Amino acid sequence: MADAEEVRVSSQPSPPPSAPSSSGASSASYPGVPVSSDRPAPSRSGGRTVDLLEEVELQIGDAAFSLTKLLEATSAVSAQVEELAFKCTENARFLKTWRDLLKEGYDSLKPDS
Fold first, then answer.
1. Do residues 44 and 8 make contact, with C-beta atoms less than 8 angstroms apart?
2. What is the DSSP letter of 103?
3. CB 37 within 8 A of CB 9
4. Residue from 63, 33, 65 nearest 49 by CA
5. First vs last Cα of the chain: how many Å apart?
6. Residue 25, Cβ neighbours under 10 Å: how many?
7. Can you state the angle between helices 2-10 and 46-109, rounded to 10 degrees?
8. Separation between Cα atoms, residue 93 and residue 78, nearest integer Å
9. CB of 4 within 8 A of CB of 47?
10. What is the pTM of this model?
């Protein structure tokens, strides 16, 4: 029976890169997840092993998608923070200039001692 399980797991053809797989993501896009194996499948039934592998592939795909979206959001926020920092720097320069002008004007109104 182990030979039949090995055949089910290792002889499963990989879909072409353009064809969608049943799991929503090609297992070839996950280099760390082997599609076939030369060793016998675990003692579980072959179909269950394939289902678990597909579930892991789905979870990896979902995590990769979530991380990509998180990176995009982080990049957008980072750009906004940089823009805000620039505006704050410009405002600080403006306020320092006004402070210096006011101080200069105040000092010019003081009577000379």
1. no
2. H
3. yes
4. 33
5. 108
6. 18
7. 40
8. 23
9. no
10. 0.44
